[in-house]
Amino acid sequence: MGDPVKPHLPGTLGELRGSEFSLERLTRRTVKDEMRQNLVCRLERGEGLFAGIIGFDDTVIPQVTNAILSRHHFILLGLRGQAKTRLLRALTELLDPELPYLAGCEVHDNPYAPICQRCRLLLAEQGDRAAIAYRTPEERYVEKLATPDVTIADMIGDLDPIKAARGGLDLSSELTIHYGLLPRAHRGIFAINELPDLAGKIQVGLFNIMQEGDVQIKGYPVRLPLDVLLVFTANPEDYTARGKIITPLKDRIGSEIRTHYPATLEHGMQITEQEAWLERNARGKVCMPRYVVEVIESIAFLAREDKRIDKRSGVSQRLPITCLENVLSNAERRAIRNKEALVAPRVSDVYAALPSLTGKLELEYEGELKGADAVARELIKAAVGRVYTRHFEGVNVSRIVQWFDMGGTLKIRDAQPAAELAAELEPIQGLMEVAARLDTGLPDDPAVKASAAEFVLDGLYAHRRISRNDEVGYTAEEKKRDTRDHDDFPPRGTRRQYN
Questions:
Q1: Are 241 and 212 contained in the same domain?
Q2: What is the residue range of 307's domain?
Q3: Beta strand pairing status for 74-77 and 255-258?
């Protein structure tokens, strides 16, 4: 069967009058009423809200729902990478599929109640013959990033002398107005990101819109009763600091909603895998081990708890997203060079993805002394240790440790072919048996076996059961090795007696 036939949409004002877009519906229902009504219908049908927003079901989304039901302008307060902008853009779900307006109008005027002079003159001239156009929900969403250089003209509008000259109009005529972003969002949603960065005089310019519902352009007493839902985002530190946001504007915002980072590792992993670019046209099949994704997500969780990292800045959810992409890229590069049929990331690929981590960590003084690279490496090691404990707590690994205690060493190269690495890992007693406990999906493939075994070794290193360095690779834990290699030396803190 083909696509369903769409109903014919009226093309003129006369046709519009006899359609579902009645005079009463379009003149008495504001955009806030429209969103409230559509939200109520979705709640009655038991439908989910804001697809793709994970981890906010019991916290943020109920508060946003209350704000819309209350017809409030609202602000989302949260650190970077907490899906604030994504949530605002998802509000278009609650708008009607089509909204009629007078064709050619800059502010997308209501055909029954135009607010601009151009449309009033048009209706006086053409009446029911006036052409009608339609806007989609996405077109009704206007977004602006607040920066110190934003002007009143950008937000509200300005007089256009070129329009006046071309039309032979006086500058006092409304027909000479060049409308800014806010009037162009008429009958829709206007979002301002990072509100505190907006200059104070621009914040003042938002007062009338939020309270009285009108604006003034260049000092002219032009009343534009705009119908718009205003939504904002801000960092909590900036929002509460004196001088960042003026009190009268803050007072006019109906609801203040706090966002947060994922509360559980599972939620974080769902977000990361949803947002990361993993569907690639790679030459080989991609197998992304779950424990690698857990390690990457655990890095972000540990970083948010680390005292060396600035908590006021936060650790964005973009950190695990870009790290996962970089990890897959490093594994993909290795598979291409070695002409392997399967791309299977390893823990060593996480260390290769350091460039995707260091730039996203805002360090405190202690962290600056150590350096971003060293802090990131320690976070990876701690994350591997945490995930290793989750999978192997209580598992006997003494045979593996014993192999290294007896002098065994293993150095893994970043570009080493999977089959070659798997062959080097096989002789380590007990290693493959422990690694086989991981649910990899392809347990017999050399690339998967090598990845799982390397994870076990790195987990033992994280728990200080064995040691590792760049020159030698994996070896016995340093204290044991020192005792074995120098057993004729007395313990530290004692003196040897010579005859």
A1: yes
A2: 265-483
A3: parallel
- Kindly report the three-state secondary structure assignment for every residue of the chain: CCCCCCCCCCCEHHHHHCCCCCHHHHHHCCHHHHHHHHHHHHHHHCCCCCCCCCCCCCCHHHHHHHHHHCCCCEEEECCCCCCHHHHHHHHHHHCCCCEEEECCCCCCCCCCCCCCHHHHHHHHHHHHHCEEEEECCHHHEEEEECCCCCCHHHHCEEECHHHHHHHCCCCCCHHHEEECHHHHCCCEEEEEECHHHCCHHHHHHCHHHHHCCCCCECCECCCCCCCEEEEEEECHHHHHCCCCCCHHHHHHCCEEEECCCCCCHHHHHHHHHHHCCCCCCCCCEECCCHHHHHHHHHHHHHHHHCCCECCCCCCCCHHHHHHHHHHHHHHHHHHHHCCCCEECCCHHHHHHCCHHHHCCCCECHHHHHHCHHHHHHHHHHHHHHHHHHHHHCCCCCHHHHHHHHCCCCECCCCCCCHHHHHHHHCCCCCHHHHHCCCCCCCCCCHHHHHHHHHHHHHHHHHCCCEEEECCCEEEECHHHHHHHHCCCCCCCCCCCCCC
Residues 357 and 208 in one domain: no
| pTM greater than 0.70 (yes/no) | yes
> What pLDDT score was predicted for residue 484?
46
Cα separation of 384 and 378, whole Å? 10
Domains held by the chain: number: 2
Q: Within a domain: residue 21? A: no
pLDDT digit string (tens) for 285-297? 899 999 999 999 9
pLDDT in tens, 33-52: 999 999 999 999 999 999 89
417 and 328 part of one domain? yes
Residues 290 and 222 in one domain: no
Let me know if residue 253 belongs to a domain.
Answer: yes
Based on the fold, state whether residues 253 and 305 are members of the same structural domain.
Answer: no
Query: Do 346 and 417 belong to one domain?
Result: yes
Using the 3D structure, point to which of 223, 258, 293 is the last residue of a domain: 258
Q: Residue 72's domain is classified under what CATH number?
A: 3.40.50.300
Burial status of residue 451 (CB atoms within 10 A of its CB: 0-12, 13-18, 19 or more): buried
Q: Are residues 251 and 280 in the same domain?
A: no
